[in-house]
Amino acid sequence: MYAYQLRPPQPDKRLGAVKALIREAHSTARRGSRAWAARMVAESAITHILIISDSPSRRRGVNRALEAELQRLDVDFFVTEAARLQSESSSAGAADR
């Protein structure tokens, strides 16, 4: 999992092309039997684009397209480092130890 963080927060209407890229990437991943999903979360001081993927790589075409669109919109953003998520079954096992 990793996230794009946009400051200042962006209005929904301004990010229409970004949302379209996210929908397209999700559909492409599903057709290719890959795990990739994103969700936009707006807060008062920041807008997050949270991404969960089967790969920590941010060198995919969707990342280049997202970053190009954010740059075109002149949005200040940064990307967090990828973090591995544990499955519920492995978390439960760890809690029992």
Please specify the SSE layout and strand pairing.
Blueprint lengths: L1 E6 L8 H16 L4 E7 L4 E7 L7 H12 L3 E4 L8 H9 L1
Antiparallel strand pairs: 1-3, 1-4, 2-3
Could you provide a short overview of the structure?
The chain is an alpha+beta fold and 97 residues long.
Explain what this protein looks like in three dimensions:
The protein has helices at 16-31, 61-72, 88-96, and strands spanning 2-7, 36-42, 47-53, 76-79. The protein is an alpha+beta fold. The protein has one domain (2-96): Alpha-Beta Plaits. A four-stranded antiparallel beta sheet has the order 2-3-1-4, with helices on one face. Strand 2 and strand 3 (47-53) form a beta hairpin. 14% of the residues are buried. The model has no long low-confidence stretch (mean pLDDT 85).
First-last Cα distance: 25 Å
What is the CATH architecture assignment? Answer: 2-Layer Sandwich
Count of DSSP strands: 4
* CATH fold naming: Alpha-Beta Plaits
CATH homologous superfamily placement = Ribosomal protein S10
